[in-house]
C-alpha cells in the first residue's frame, strides 16, 4: 500500500515538462510521467512499478480540454482532445457524447465514477493496458496521437502507436499532448463484456459504420481485451463493405473479429478470467452487438442504449 | 496550482484546503492523499480497504468531485480543496446522505460507509433523481460486504428525495 | 429520525421486541468518527511489516536480516529464533478433533519449512509503515522449493507431497453412520449421485485485519484487535505468550466486518504483539488487501461425492458418500468444527432422511489456512443436499418444489431428531416453502418458462431455483468457561438514577447489538430504551463470553441478558411495595446482576429461497432477475437488523455461486491476489432483494429467538445455482461447479461441452 520512495517534480507547462524529462534522463534516472495516476499509482502501490522520479504533468493546462468538432466548425471538422482531459470531462461534454456515441458508451462503463474523475485520455493511451475500453473506440474512429518531444512534435496513427502489452511507440523523452479524432459517422457503438472484479473488458468491441443506399460504405471496427493490444479486425471491416447490409452480413463479419489482425492471426490472451478461445468468441459476440447497435444508430434510431455493466 | 518547475524532491511541501481549512505539511513525496488525511491531519474517517483502487472506502471530494484518495498523491492535491466525510456533516447537522444512510439502515460494520456516502453524494450531484439501476451502476467504484447494497440503494433514493425537497 | 423509530410510542415494554428501531451505533460511523484499529495512533508508535513466503512449499535454507536491520528507520527485525528466545510459543492448532487426529502446532514465524505462499517468515518493525515496507524488501530468505499440492482431493492422494510429519496429508477421518443406509440404498428406486465442489473463497471484510499493541500501565499488555472474540483472543494470547490472561487487555473497538475470519488468533498478530512487548513501544500493523488474500483465512474448500437414495414414491431414504475438506497448511482453532460439527451433521437439512453413511476427511494442503467463513459448513451442507434434491427431482420427472414438500420434516413432528443426532426444536418448512412459492408466483414462472422453451428455444434461457435450508445457530461450549460458569455472561446494572448498563460477552462487528440488546433489556426490564447502554468488545468492561460468530449472539448473549434481567427484577422486589424499576433502584442504591447463558441448545432457523435467473446463451452470462427470501428465525428482536443480515448473506451467497474463487496454479501460487482479480459482488450484481418471514419460536431458550446471521449464504447459494442449472437443463447440462462463470456455462452449452 506504500509506493517505493521516489523524487517528485511538478511541471507547469509542456515546455517545462519536456525540460524536466530531458534532465532526469540525462541523469540516467528511471522517470515516469504522472497524469491522473489512476493506472500508474496502483502499480506503484503494489511495487510493480518503482520509478525513481515522477514528473507530475497534471497541472499543465495547455494539455487539457477539447477543441474542434462539429460545434466549432463545419461538419467534418476534427476533434482534438487534450491529453490531460479526464474521462469525466469527456462524458460530461455534450459535443463529445453527441458526436461520438461510441465514446459515450465506453465512458459510461469505464472503471468507475471516481476513477473517471482523475483518469485522462492521454494517460490511458500511454499506459497501453491491453484491456482498456477507450483505445478500442479511438482505434475504430481512426484517431491519431500527437506527441511532443525534444525535437519537436509528431503525429502517429493510434494503430501504429500501440505496440503491445503496456508498450507504445512513445520515446523516453516524449509526451503525448493530444488525441485527434476525425469526423465520424453517427452509426457507432461500443459493447463490452467486463471482467467481474476489475470491470476491465475481457472483450470489448467498437463499431463505426456509414451506410449509403443499404450498403455499408465505411466501417471501422476495433476489439480490445482480447489480444496484447487493441486491434482492428480487417477481415471484419472488409466483409462489412463487401455486400448489401443484412443481418447475416453482420454475423459473418463479426465471425472474423477474432480471426485476423492486420493480416495475421490474433493471438488471444489467456488467464484465469477467460481462456483464449473464449476471448475470441466474446470478441465475435461483442463485435456483432456493437455492429447491430451501430447500424441502428446509423439508421437514426438512437435508442441503442449504452452497454450494461 | 503553483506553476513552478523545481528540481525533483523526495519531500514536498503541500498545502491542501481540507474541509475549508488550509493545511500545510511537509511530507515524503510518496505520501498518498489518504495517508495525508489520516496520519498528518488525523482525519481517520476516510478508510483504506484495498490497494488496487477498487473498494472506494477512501472516497473524498477533490475540488468538489469524488475521487479515491488512495490513488492521489498528497502532492497532486497541493493547492486543491478536499472535503472528507468529517467535512460534510456532524452530529449537530447531518448531511442528507448521512441522514438517509442512518434512516434506511444503509450500513452495518460502517467501514465502507464514509466512502459510500461520499460516492452517493457525488452520484446525486450528477444525477439528482436516479433510478435504482442508475444508482447500482453508479456505485461501481464502491464495495460493501455487509449490506448486499440493498439498503444503500434505498438510502441513495431517500437522500435524493430529501435533497430535492430541500 | 425516521418513521421506523418508535420514539415516543413504544420506547419501552414488551412491544419493543420486534420493533424496527434504527441503529444507535450509526452516528459515529456516518460522520467519520468511528474508532477502528487503524485509527489508533500513539506517541512513539512503530509500524510493522510482515515478510511472507513467496512460495507455497519450501525448506528455508537461510534468512539474512542484516541489511533490513540496518535500513533507515528500522527498530528491529524478528525471525522465528527471536520469538523462541522471547518464549513466544506456537499457536496450538485446532480444538475438538476426533481422537487420533493429527494436530500440528502452528508456528508464529516459519521455522524450517514454509507451507503456503503467504506464511509469515519475518517481521520488520520501523518508524513508519513505508520504511517498514522498504526494509522488508531487504530481508533475504533462501528457499529450497518443494512440490506443492493445493486441492482437497489431490492433497489426500497417497502420492501427494506431504506437508507435516507423517505419511500423508490426511489429518483425520470421521464416519457418520446411523439407520440402515445399506438397506436403503439396496432397495432404492433411484440413486442420485454427484461430485460437487464448494470452492475456496475469501471473506473480504472491508476492514482488513490488523493489530496495535503497547505496554500499558501496571504491566498490562494493551491490545487493540479487530476481533469477533475479545475474550477468546485474550485467552489464546495468554497461552501463546506465557502470560496470565489478567495481564492482557483486549479491546476490539469498531470492527469493520468479520464473517468468521476475525475469529481466530493469527500468527502475524501474535508476532506484532510480541514485538511490542519486546521493544516496550506501541507497534501497529495493518494488513493490505492484497496481503489479506494470502494471510487471512479462507472459507469452504470441500469436495463432496454424495449419493441420495430415493424410494419409488419419491421419498428420500438415505445419504452416503465422502466429503474431503482441505484446511490449508495449518489448522486454525475452530476450523475443523465446520466440517465435523456442521457440514456433516447438517447434510439431512430439513428432510426426514432416516439413514446416513458419510465419511468426513480433513486434509492439509499448501494453501492459506481455512477458517470459519459465513455459514462455516452450513452453506456447504445445504448446497450439497439441495443440489442432490434438484437432481432427484429431475430424475423423478417431478417439480422440485413438490419433491421438497414431500420430504420435509412435517410441522407436527417437532422436535425432530435427525439421523445425524441433532434435535431441531421447531419449524414449519411446508409453510415457509408455500409462502416462497406464493411470493415468487411460482406456477406462473413455470408456465412462462415452458412457453419460452417452446417458442424461443435459442433465446435467453430462463431458470427458477429453490434453496431450502435449516441453519443451526447459537453454538456455546457445554463445558464451563474460565471462571466456572457455562456460556456467555451478561452484567446488568441499574444505577440509582435509573440508567441501565448491559455488558455482555458477545461482541458485535456490524450486527447492531447495541440497538438490539438495548431493545431486549428495555423490554425485559420495562424501562425506557434511551436509558439503556450496551457495552461489549472490551475485556476490561465486558464480562466473559465467546464472542460473536456462528449466529450465536441472540441465542447466547440474549439468554444471558434475559437471565441477568430476571435477577435484577427479583432483586428489585426487595423494596416493600410494587414500583417502577428506576424507583426501586434509587431506593436500593442501585442494582447489579450477572448471569451466564449456560449452554442453551442450538436453535434451528430455516428458510426457503427462490431465484429467477436468465442465461445469455451467446456468452454464458448469468443475470439474476429476482431473489426472494423467506426466513424463519423465531422471535425477531429487530426486523431491520434481521433483514440486513439476510441482505448481506444473500450477496455473499450469490458471490460464491457466480464469481468468487480463490484458485491456485500448480506451484501453489494464488491466481487472485487482489480485488482486481477476486470478484466480490458489486451493487449492480444484485437485483432488489425480496424478503419475507414467518416465525416459529424456538422452544429451547427463554426468548424464542433463533440464530440467523448466516441464512442468506445458505439460501442464496442453493437458489442461484439451482436456478442457473434449471435454465441449462433443457440444453443437456446436469451439473456445473461454482462459481458459475460465463465461460464455464458457455463451454457447457457448446456441442462438445460436458
What does this structure look like?
The complex is a heterotrimer of chains A (309), B (166) and C (754). With 309 residues, chain A is an alpha+beta fold. Chain A folds into three domains: 7-56, 2-Layer Sandwich (Uridine Diphospho-n-acetylenolpyruvylglucosamine Reductase, domain 2); 64-181, Uridine Diphospho-n-acetylenolpyruvylglucosamine Reductase, domain 3, CATH 3.30.465; 187-298, CO dehydrogenase flavoprotein, C-terminal domain (Enolase-like, domain 1, 2-Layer Sandwich). Chain A contains twelve helices and 13 strands. In chain A, the strands form four sheets. Chain A has a five-stranded antiparallel beta sheet with strand order 4-5-10-6-7. A three-stranded parallel beta sheet of chain A has the order 1-3-2, covered by helices on one side. In chain A, a hairpin with a 2-residue loop joins strand 12 and strand 13. Chain B is α+β, with helices and mostly antiparallel strands. Chain B has six helices and five strands. Chain B has helices spanning 33-40, 85-88, 96-103, 113-126, 132-138, 150-165; strands spanning 11-18, 21-28, 59-62, 65-68, 81-83. In chain B, strands 2-1-5-3-4 form a five-stranded mixed beta sheet, sandwiched between helices. In chain B, helix 3 (96-103) crosses helix 6 (150-165) and helix 4 packs across helix 6. Chain C has 754 residues and is an alpha+beta fold. In chain C, the strands form six sheets. A seven-stranded mixed beta sheet of chain C has the order 3-5-1-12-9-10-11. A five-stranded mixed beta sheet of chain C has the order 7-15-14-13-8. A four-stranded mixed beta sheet of chain C has the order 18-23-24-25, sandwiched between helices. The relative contact order of chain C is 0.13. Mean pLDDT of chain C is 95; it is low at 5-9. Classes of the chains: A alpha+beta (309), B alpha+beta (166), C alpha+beta (754). Chains in contact: A-B, A-C, B-C. Chains B and C meet through helix 3, helix 4, helix 5 and helix 6 of B and helix 1 and helix 18 of C.
Amino acid at each position: 500500500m506504500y509506493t517505493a520512495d521516489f523524487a517528485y517534480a511538478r511541471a507547469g507547462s509542456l515546455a517545462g515538462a519536456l525540460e524536466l524529462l530531458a534532465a532526469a534522463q540525462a541523469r540516467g534516472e528511471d522517470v515516469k510521467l504522472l497524469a491522473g495516476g489512476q493506472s500508474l499509482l496502483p502499480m506503484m502501490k503494489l511495487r510493480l512499478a518503482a520509478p525513481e522520479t515522477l514528473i507530475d504533468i497534471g497541472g499543465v493546462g495547455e494539455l487539457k480540454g477539447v477543441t474542434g468538432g462539429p460545434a466549432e466548425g463545419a461538419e467534418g471538422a476534427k476533434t482534438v482532445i487534450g491529453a490531460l482531459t479526464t474521462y469525466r470531462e469527456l462524458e460530461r461534454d455534450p459535443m463529445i457524447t453527441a458526436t461520438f456515441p461510441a465514446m459515450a458508451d465506453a465512458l459510461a462503463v469505464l472503471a468507475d465514477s471516481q476513477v473517471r474523475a482523475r483518469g485522462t485520455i492521454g494517460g490511458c493511451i500511454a499506459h497501453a493496458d491491453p484491456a482498456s475500453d477507450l483505445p478500442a473506440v479511438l482505434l475504430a474512429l481512426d484517431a491519431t496521437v500527437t506527441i511532443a518531444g525534444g525535437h519537436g512534435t509528431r503525429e502517429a496513427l493510434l494503430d501504429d502507436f500501440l505496440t503491445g502489452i503496456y508498450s507504445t511507440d512513445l520515446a523516453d523523452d516524449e509526451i503525448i499532448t493530444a488525441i485527434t479524432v476525425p469526423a465520424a459517422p453517427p452509426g457507432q457503438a461500443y459493447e463490452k463484456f467486463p471482467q467481474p472484479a476489475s470491470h476491465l473488458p475481457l472483450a470489448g468491441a467498437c463499431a463505426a459504420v456509414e451506410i449509403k443506399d443499404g450498403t455499408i460504405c465505411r466501417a471501422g471496427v476495433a476489439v480490445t481485451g482480447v489480444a496484447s493490444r487493441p486491434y482492428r479486425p480487417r477481415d471484419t471491416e472488409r466483409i462489412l463493405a463487401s455486400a448489401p447490409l443484412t443481418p447475416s452480413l453482420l454475423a459473418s463479419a463479426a465471425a472474423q473479429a477474432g480471426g485476423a489482425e492486420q493480416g495475421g492471426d490474433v493471438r488471444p490472451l489467456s488467464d484465469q478470467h477467460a481462456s483464449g478461445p473464449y476471448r475470441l468468441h466474446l470478441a465475435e459476440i461483442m463485435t456483432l452487438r456493437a455492429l447491430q447497435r451501430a447500424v441502428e444508430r446509423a439508421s437514426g434510431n438512437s435508442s441503442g442504449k449504452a452497454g450494461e455493466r | 496550482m503553483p506553476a513552478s518547475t523545481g528540481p525533483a524532491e523526495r519531500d514536498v511541501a503541500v498545502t491542501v484546503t481540507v474541509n475549508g481549512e488550509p493545511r500545510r505539511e511537509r511530507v515524503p513525496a510518496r505520501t498518498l492523499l489518504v495517508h495525508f488525511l489520516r496520519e498528518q491531519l488525523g482525519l481517520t474517517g476516510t478508510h483504506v480497504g484495498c490497494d488496487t483502487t477498487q473498494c472506494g472506502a477512501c472516497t473524498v471530494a477533490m475540488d468538489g468531485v469524488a475521487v479515491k484518495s488512495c490513488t492521489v498523491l498528497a502532492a497532486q492535491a497541493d493547492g486543491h480543496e478536499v472535503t472528507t466525510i468529517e467535512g460534510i456533516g456532524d452530529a449537530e447537522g447531518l448531511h442528507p446522505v448521512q441522514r438517509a444512510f442512518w434512516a434506511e439502515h444503509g450500513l452495518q460494520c460502517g467501514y465502507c460507509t464514509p466512502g459510500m456516502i461520499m460516492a452517493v453524494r457525488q452520484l446525486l450531484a450528477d444525477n439528482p433523481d436516479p433510478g435504482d439501476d442508475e444508482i447500482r451502476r453508479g456505485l461501481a467504484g464502491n464495495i460493501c460486504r455487509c449490506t448486499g447494497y440493498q439498503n444503500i440503494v434505498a438510502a441513495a433514493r431517500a437522500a435524493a428525495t430529501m435533497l430535492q425537497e430541500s | 429520525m425516521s418513521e421506523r423509530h418508535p420514539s415516543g410510542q413504544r420506547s419501552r415494554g414488551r412491544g419493543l421486541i420486534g420493533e424496527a428501531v434504527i441503529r444507535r451505533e450509526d452516528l459515529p460511523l456516518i460522520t467519520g468518527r468511528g474508532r477502528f484499529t487503524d485509527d489508533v495512533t500513539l506517541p512513539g508508535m512503530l509500524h510493522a511489516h510482515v515478510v511472507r513466503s513467496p512460495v507455497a512449499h519450501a525448506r528455508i535454507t537461510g534468512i539474512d536480516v542484516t541489511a533490513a536491520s540496518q535500513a533507515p528507520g528500522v527498530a528491529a527485525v524478528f525471525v522465528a529464533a527471536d520469538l523462541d528466545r522471547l518464549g513466544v510459543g506456537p499457536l496450538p492448532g485446532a480444538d475438538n478433533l476426533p481422537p487420533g487426529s493429527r494436530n500440528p502446532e502452528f508456528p508464529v514465524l516459519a521455522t524450517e519449512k514454509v507451507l503456503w505462499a503467504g506464511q509469515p517468515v519475518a517481521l520488520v518493525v520501523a518508524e513508519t509503515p513505508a520504511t517498514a515496507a522498504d526494509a522488508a524488501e531487504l530481508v533475504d530468505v533462501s528457499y529450497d522449493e518443494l512440490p506443492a499440492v493445493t486441492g482437497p482431493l489431490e492433497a489426500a492422494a497417497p502420492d501427494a507431497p506431504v506437508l507435516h510429519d507423517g505419511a500423508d496429508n490426511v489429518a483425520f477421518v470421521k464416519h457418520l453412520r446411523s439407520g440402515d443406509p445399506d438397506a436403503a440404498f439396496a432397495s432404492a428406486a433411484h440413486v442420485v449421485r454427484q461430485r460437487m465442489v464448494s470452492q475456496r473463497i475469501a471473506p473480504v471484510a472491508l476492514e482488513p485485519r490488523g493489530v496495535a499493541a503497547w505496554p500499558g500501565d501496571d504491566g498490562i499488555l494493551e491490545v487493540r484487535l479487530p476481533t469477533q472474540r475479545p475474550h477468546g483472543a485474550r485467552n489464546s494470547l495468554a497461552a501463546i505468550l506465557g502470560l496470565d490472561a489478567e495481564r492482557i487487555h483486549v479491546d476490539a473497538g469498531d470492527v469493520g466486518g468479520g464473517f468468521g475470519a476475525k475469529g481466530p488468533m493469527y500468527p502475524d498478530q501474535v508476532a506484532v504483539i510480541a514485538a511490542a512487548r519486546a521493544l516496550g513501544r506501541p507497534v501497529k500493523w495493518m494488513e493490505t488487501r492484497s496481503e489479506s488474500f494470502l494471510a487471512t483465512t479462507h472459507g469452504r474448500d470441500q469436495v463432496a461425492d454424495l449419493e441420495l437414495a430415493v424410494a419409488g414414491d419419491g421419498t428420500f431414504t438415505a445419504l452416503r458418500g465422502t466429503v474431503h475438506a482441505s484446511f490449508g497448511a495449518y489448522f486454525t482453532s475452530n476450523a475443523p468444527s465446520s466440517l465435523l460439527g456442521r457440514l456433516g451433521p447438517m447434510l439431512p437439512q430439513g428432510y426426514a432422511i432416516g439413514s446416513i453413511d458419510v465419511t468426513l476427511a480433513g486434509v492439509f494442503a499448501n494453501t492459506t489456512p481455512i477458517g470459519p467463513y459465513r455459514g462455516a459448513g452450513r452453506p456447504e451442507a445445504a448446497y450439497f443436499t439441495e443440489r442432490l434434491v434438484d437432481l432427484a427431482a429431475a430424475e423423478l420427472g417431478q417439480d422440485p418444489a413438490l419433491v421438497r414438500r414431500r420430504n420435509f420434516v412435517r410441522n407436527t413432528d417437532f422436535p425432530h431428531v435427525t439421523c445425524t443426532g441433532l434435535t431441531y426444536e421447531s419449524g414449519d418448512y411446508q409453510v415457509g416453502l408455500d409462502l416462497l412459492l406464493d411470493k415468487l408466483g411460482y406456477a406462473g414462472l413455470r408456465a412462462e418458462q415452458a412457453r419460452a422453451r417452446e417458442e424461443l428455444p435459442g433465446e435467453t434461457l430462463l431458470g427458477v431455483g429453490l434453496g431450502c435450508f435449516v441453519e443451526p445457530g447459537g453454538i456455546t461450549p457445554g463445558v464451563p468457561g474460565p471462571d466456572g460458569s457455562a456460556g456467555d455472561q451478561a452484567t446488568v446494572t441499574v444505577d440509582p438514577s435509573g440508567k441501565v448498563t448491559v455488558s455482555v460477552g458477545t461482541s458485535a462487528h456490524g450486527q447492531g447489538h447495541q440497538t438490539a440488546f438495548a431493545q431486549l433489556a428495555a423490554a425485559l426490564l420495562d424501562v425506557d430504551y434511551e436509558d439503556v447502554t450496551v457495552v461489549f468488545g472490551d475485556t476490561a468492561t465486558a464480562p466473559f463470553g465467546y464472542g460473536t460468530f456462528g449466529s450465536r449472539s441472540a441465542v447466547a448473549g440474549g439468554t444471558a441478558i434475559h437471565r441477568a434481567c430476571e435477577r435484577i427484577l427479583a432483586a428489585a422486589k426487595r423494596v416493600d411495595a410494587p414500583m417502577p424499576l428506576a424507583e426501586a433502584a434509587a431506593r436500593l442504591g442501585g442494582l447489579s446482576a450477572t448471569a451466564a447463558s449456560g449452554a442453551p441448545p442450538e436453535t434451528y432457523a430455516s428458510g426457503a429461497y427462490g431465484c429467477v435467473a436468465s442465461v445469455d446463451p451467446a456468452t454464458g452470462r448469468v443475470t439474476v432477475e429476482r431473489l426472494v427470501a423467506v426466513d424463519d428465525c423465531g422471535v425477531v428482536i429487530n426486523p431491520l437488523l434481521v433483514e440486513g443480515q439476510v441482505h448481506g448473506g444473500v450477496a455473499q451467497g450469490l458471490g460464491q455461486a457466480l464469481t468468487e474463487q480463490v484458485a491456485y496454479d500448480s506451484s501453489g501460487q494464488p491466481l487472485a491476489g487482489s480485488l482486481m482479480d477476486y470478484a466480490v459482488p458489486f451493487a449492480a450484481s444484485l437485483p432488489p432483494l425480496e424478503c419475507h418471514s414467518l416465525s416459529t419460536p424456538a422452544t429451547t431458550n427463554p426468548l424464542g429467538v433463533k440464530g440467523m446471521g448466516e441464512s442468506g449464504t445458505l439460501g442464496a447459494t442453493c437458489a442461484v445455482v439451482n436456478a442457473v442449472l434449471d435454465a441449462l437443463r433443457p440444453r443437456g447440462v446436469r451439473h456445473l461447479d461454482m462459481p458459475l462463470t460465463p465461460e464455464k456455462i458457455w463451454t457447457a452449452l457448446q456441442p462438445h461441452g460436458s
